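Morning. Coffee machine broken again, so started the prediction first thing and wrote up yesterday's gels while waiting. Chain of 339 residues, entered below exactly as on the submission form.
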Amino acid sequence: MYTLLEGPKESLVKKYVRIFFVVAAYWIISITTVFVNKELFNGQHVKLNATLFVTWFQCIVTTCICMTGTFLSRRFPKLVPLSFPEAYPLRKETIKNVIPLSIMFTMMIATNNLCLRYVSVAFYYVGRSLTTIFNVILSYIFLKEKQSFKSIICCAVIISGFYLGVDQESLTDTFSLIGTIFGIIGSFALSMYSIYTKKTLPFVNGEVWLLSYYNNFYSIFLFLPLIVISGEVHEVLNYEHIGKLWFWMAMTIGGVCGFLIGYVTTLQIKVTSPLTHNISGTAKACAQTILATSWFNEIKSFLWWFSNIVVLLGSFAYARVKQVEMAQRHRDAHNSQKL
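Came back before lunch.
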């Protein structure tokens, strides 16, 4: 009996260890990226009112990194330990299969960055806390995944926390209605992106590097009409620091962060699930909120903090419910194999 159970148990432990390191990398890179982007979007030094342009440039940097990695891995395979697969972004089949995901990717990073521009880093957490709710709804619509009663209760808790958080933030000088709306749209886009990622990964044979390259390559073109429509072309051409070296260095650093967060986000979805990815993002944002209030010396009310706690508890309770359900399915599958 011990021998029969040891194999599956060891396999499950290895799976959890791998997930832990991927999630930890996601947390560190994501929090760093948020603070860097906040400075680029409306910080005290950059002062460039062109969020979509900055995001577009980050896509260019990511694409260049992927192209360089592919070239070096082929030219100097012994010096480059990572394997970069061959990419064919202009093939009709590739465009047909990946472009729907790239549209979601463009929508996701555009709305998330616009949300970050208008709201404080501290409120950014609550402003995007509906991701789990949208993921539950969309998973039922597209993947036919039904939720238990306990899961629905947890979702109700998250929604109540979001409502209270918006109510309390509206009493402060940092509240932005348009930023909150972008946060809601960003939550929806992130859920759609997570689901489409699971569907698209088999086409690229599960290659995270390749999918990241395709998304950013196509987003370079998808962002162009958005930049023109938003009027950011005028802002960029008249920017006083457009020819300064420090500005482009800051932009490049933001691009590298964008590349890293794009990679670890896709990797986290790959090793876990769309739902687990969204829950991880919510929990990470809680730690991010504490860091932000300390960094920017912000003082918040008791009810404001309570709304954060409500969202956090609801998210963690939901994660716990899903963890128990996953473990139960694992045991059921093991028992069926024994029979």
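The longest helix spans residues 2-42. Going to sketch it on the whiteboard this afternoon.
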